[in-house]
Design a protein that fits this description.
By secondary structure, this protein is an alpha/beta fold. The protein is about 40% helix and about 15% strand. The chain binds pyridoxal-5'-phosphate (PLP).
Length: about 450
Amino acid sequence: MDDAVGNRNGNADSELWVKARAHLVRYGGEFAPFIAARAQGSFMWDAEGRRILDFCSGQMSAIIGHSHPEIVEVVRRTVGELDHLYSTILSRPVVELAALLAKLAPGQLERVLLVSTGGGSNEAAIRMAKLASGRHEIVGLSRSWHGVTGGAASATYSSSRRGYGPVQAGSFVLPAPDPYRSPFIRADGIYDWRAELDFGFDLIDRQSTGALAACIAEPILSSGGVLEPPEGYMQALADKCRARGMLLILDEAQTGLGRTGHLFACERDGVTPEFLTLSKTLGAGLPLAAVLTTPEIEETCYERGFLFYTTHASDPLPAAVGLKVIEVVIRDKLTERARTLGEHLRAGLLALKQRHECIGDVRGRGLLVGLDLVKDRAARTPAPELAQRVARRCLELGMMTSVVRGGYGIFRIAPPITIARDEIDLAVDIFDRAIRDSVGKAQ
Ligand SMILES: Cc1ncc(COP(=O)(O)O)c(C=O)c1O
């Protein structure tokens, strides 16, 4: 190979790294130490032809695997027929995708706005919530990630907020539900999440100037460390919101479209929000995102002159991809598959927990799984350095993983939900070897 993506001098291609260092903004710390050349299904291949199991689905997005043949076909065909349009022009894929999402989503979430990124979808939902409610205060969970644009970043607490000046006025935080480390875990081991939620809302009520517009939450907090709210939590959160006239925005960027064993994770909780946002998995790796809301809210926003006019709002190409992704997920029963294979994966990781003292917790739902490494099981002290060593060793052994930010040692595991059973076994085996090789080693 000797082309734009392939192998000139393998991963060590000094010319490429020099160019990268000279011309790329480092938007999230260090880059991975290899050059990707190709990706297919659950695997990537580096510039030396080495196979790497992608246990993060790209950036938690390639839910039906890389370069799924039907997606490749749709992209090829659509880009040659109808690629991009002036934003007020409609086309069949956009309207059909909106109608399909409206049909599949819970409750009355029948009006759809298409955008390109998760941040954009949350930005739009927050703006609509403000316009419809006539209020401006937004509540987020303390380990959330909703994006890096103004409104979404103001409600994001799991990344550093330092260095960028004021966030949006009226940004309030609730304690994230963490069944493993919450200070509201009682001496008998029971997690008193109701007391935590009451405490959180008591603080919110004291801070509010009477303008609570919305609460935004992920049904499972992925970037925060795969924190799964206990059953009943989301309903109680929705009740607290309704009691205050607040709208609920559920961000299903990572949980949407089958990953957790439900098409939408909020279905498990029986909660229908006023806004549901989808991104990452909707385009399965291509930039597509959506905001779903009720006709009532959409009508109110329209009457009040809602403006969220973006360049790609009516693009047929990503919309056609979204239609195909949903078709594949439903036709191939991938939601059920995520549920069964998720159980298989957790069973494998729980077996590792028997062998490795440093595994404090294995959690998650479907194929969104958290593996929490600790220095001390009883104290549940996070082991961030060990997790980084394990992640590096996993990569050497042929698997890409993701460790969450923020001083924890938590692996966020989200493979494509098309993954094969033996590929999961391979991953568990790699984790086993990587942990064994990393424990007790200096950095
Ligand atoms: C739950 C959630 N919402 C929103 C976003 C932001 O999406 P994007 O990076 O596409 O703006 C992310 C990204 O990680 C996410 O995990």
